[in-house]
Amino acid sequence: DVKVTQSSRYLVKRTGEKVFLECVQDMDHENMFWYRQDPGLGLRLIYFSYDVKMKEKGDIPEGYSVSREKKERFSLILESASTNQTSMYLCASIGGRGPDQPQHFGDGTRLSIL
Amino acid sequence: GDSVTQMEGPVTLSEEAFLTINCTYTATGYPSLFWYVQYPGEGLQLLLKATKADDKGSNKGFEATYRKETTSFHLEKGSVQVSDSAVYFCALRRIGGSNYKLTFGKGTLLTVNP
Known about the structure:
Radius of gyration of chain A: 13 Å
Helix content of chain A: under 10%
Strand content of chain A: over 45%
Shape of chain A: globular
Distance between the termini of chain B: 41 Å
Number of strands of chain A: 11
Structural class of chain A: mainly beta
Number of strands of chain B: 12
Radius of gyration of chain B: 14 Å
Distance between the termini of chain A: 37 Å
Oligomer: heterodimer
Helix content of chain B: under 10%
Order of helices and strands of chain A: EEEEEEEEEEE
Shape of chain B: globular
Order of helices and strands of chain B: EEEEEEEEEEEE
Structural class of chain B: mainly beta
């Protein structure tokens, strides 16, 4: 089974801090994704990466950056955290090129910015 | 652009009731369609999928049929259980190139009472 692991389930940080969210997958997947999930808005794509050191903006990249130095690890960075970034963050990965390949998700990090 | 519209919740049912959660989509070409489920405190898990018109995906008693003529992928279950209480997301993935992104609906919260 594919395992996508997010480093923290719950995180509390202060406004202005630099925040790192880490995600690791164990299936050698090329494509990895970061979403945020908010009530009434569903999942929104922040950034994704299709290879090491390659990244592409999603629908809501403002205030975020990402890092993919190794294939198995994809980090989301909040450069200067703000209260409107309080949310649930979900990491996902996908392998293979078949049309039926699903994304595999981690358990999420619930981030609170005070 | 691509979009997914699913019925707004919350949906509250009694155990053994019949469930339908409507999902319609807008996309160019022939996307793959997915239903994901999110149990409380967890990430998203793939529930079922379909990759071409008239395909029926099924899992754990849930079914959904890819209807190209109505651009729909409604989720159904004949007899729900308390353990089915969760948030359900409909999603699509357009095929082609290196695009592995998913477009999600906003989610439907299902509560099943004993």
